Each structure stands twice: as C-alpha cells, then as structure tokens.
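User: Can you help me understand a structure? I only have the sequence.
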Amino acid sequence: MIVIGLSSGTSVDGIDVAVADLRLAGGDVVLAPIAHREVPHPPALREDILAALPPAPTTMAEVCRLDTLIGQAFADAARGAIADLCPGRAADLVVSHGQTVYHWIEDGRARGTLQLGQPAWIAEATGVPVVSDVRARDVAAGGQGAPLASTFDVLWLAGRDAPAAALNIGGIANLTVVAPDRDPLAFDTGPGNALLDIAASRLGAGAERMDRDGRRALRGRVHGGLLARLREDPYYARPAPKSTGKEVFHGGYLDAALAGLDVAEDDVFATLVELTATTIADACARHGVAEVVASGGGLRNPALVAALRSALGPAPLRFSDSLGIDPDAKEAYLFALLGFLTWNGIPGTVASCTGAARPTPVGRISPPQRPHPGRLRLRLGPGAG
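Assistant: Let's start by predicting it. Here is the structure, written out as tokens:
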C-alpha cells in the first residue's frame, strides 16, 4: 500500500507529511520511504492553536472551529502529497494524527486525550480512506496513549545485542528502550522544546517562537539555581510508562521556576537546554542504554545536540537518518505505519510501552465512498424475502 502519514506535533511548527510504501512480508513489515515534506500551518491558524492550548481558557465554539480548520489544513496537505509525492498511482490510505490540544493525566494515569482535525475533510478532499484518532483506544485499554512511537521503534531496533534507545525530541521528548533481555519500555522523559519555545516567544526570539540555531543558548551559561529548581519536578522520578505534555510544561510553569531568581535571558535558554539534555540522559542511564538513535525538531538546535552528546557519554548519539529515516519525518512515517497496521487488522500498540492491558488496534477509519445501494429489502422471518 501507498500510505500518507500526517502529523503536527506539540510545537505546532507545521504538518509533517510522509509517503511510504508498506507491505507485509512473512512476519515482518517492510517500509520503503518515498518522500516527505513539511507544510507550514497558515500563520493565523498556528496562533489560534497556540492560544487555545492549556492552561488558556477556551470555548466549545473555538474547539469546533479549530477542529474544522485543522481538518481542512490536513486535507490540503494530503491532497498536495497525492499530487506531488505519490509515485505513479494514487495513495491507498491517509493516516492523520491531527493536533493534540489536551492530554488528560490524573494521578499518573491517562484519563483521555484529544486531537483535533476532523478527518471527514481529508476523506472528502482526497477520496481516500482515512485512519484517525490513533491514541484513544490505547487510553481506553488502560494505557498512556503515548508514546506511540514505541511501535515503530520496537520493530525498527529489534535484534540488537545491547540496549538501544530511540529518542524523539519534539515539544515533549520521548524515549523507547529496546533490550535483548527484557520487554521494551517507552515514556515521555519531559520537556523537549516546549519550555525553550515559550522562552523564545517571551524573550524576543522573533515570531518563529524558537531559538534559531540555538544562538541564545550557545551565548548563555547554565544557571545552577534554576536548573536545580526545574529538576526537582516529581515527574522525572516517576516510573515508566508515563506521559506528559504542555498541560504541565507551559508558560506558568516556567514563570514559577523563574520566580525570585535573577537569570540573564541567554542563561534561561542555556539552562533549559541543559534540562532537556540531562533528563534524557538520566533516563537512558537508568535503563542501561548503550546507543541512542535520535529524531525530531530538537536536533535542529546545535546547542541541544552538543549538550545531549555530553550528557549521554559514553553512549553514542546517532541521528535516525543513519538508519534510513530522516529525523524530521520519522513521526509522520510512524503514523503511516500505525494506519497500515490498523487497515490490516494488526494491533498498533506495544502494551509494555504504553502501560495498556493489551495491545490494541489504533484509530478509526473513515471509509472510501462506494456506490449508493439501489433499494432496501426487508427480511422479516425464516423464508421471507
């Protein structure tokens, strides 16, 4: 099958689009990456999404409006991928993660999760079946609904002689540990770019809401008091599986950490980079990781990559393209894989990674259009026609 994966992460940078040729071969899944690109969100839509994220108040009217507008943006991205990226034939399936706007965690348990981006717009725009709402079934089965990257990672890193980890650094960083002698494990390690992006939006880093090329972090110094205060968060000590999001790591969280401290602006960036790097490295060390394969937007920040290499040592840090997957496209390929598994009736989660009672299929299917039936005939009993 030719499958299009669509994703927008917690940083709300844009819609990641990946086209994959997927097939079953014996007991394996074969994924051939075909093409990928990032489609920027319309600027006004991005601002509206960010303005609606917790802890900001919102209304059901705004939720409805965003569900429609995000769905239309994803539909445009899918239609463009079919026109420009699919090789010689139309896509067989579109898989849309949508945009996470709330991940409900209470007492360490996931109670619900909400991704907006009405899939009907994608189905109508493309005429292709759509798999969407990929997290809720795992939550219903007792899981965290995250990190779903673990499904890709467990299959991808299977067969190694020593524990290896797949790391994705988006707004939130997540880790999957695959070892030869125990069940795989996955969890969110904590903030990836989330707090850095908040600092950038507040401290004059421009409309991009990011520290481009890590310039400010590279100019700054780690503030020991701020770092110690941030690392005291009890989330880091909780056992896996666990998940988190911008419901926790938001602007008010950063304000509380900075309260009463005199921290130079560039030092804020340097300290937040160190927080991300050291919490990831601590998690890797706790599980005996011998190799880290990384992807995600955080790898575009040289300051973060340098801090991560230093904190991880002696475990080497490799980018995912060394194993054939572009770091910017891995999440979109993940959702293409999950949708392919769902279409074939195969569970798309790893229970030991999400904490669910059992592996489950992921998502719901918006089917392709078929001809309307000619009429309805009632069968009223044995022999009736």
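Now, to help you interpret it: The chain has 13 helices and twelve strands. The mean pLDDT is 94. Let me know which part you'd like to focus on.
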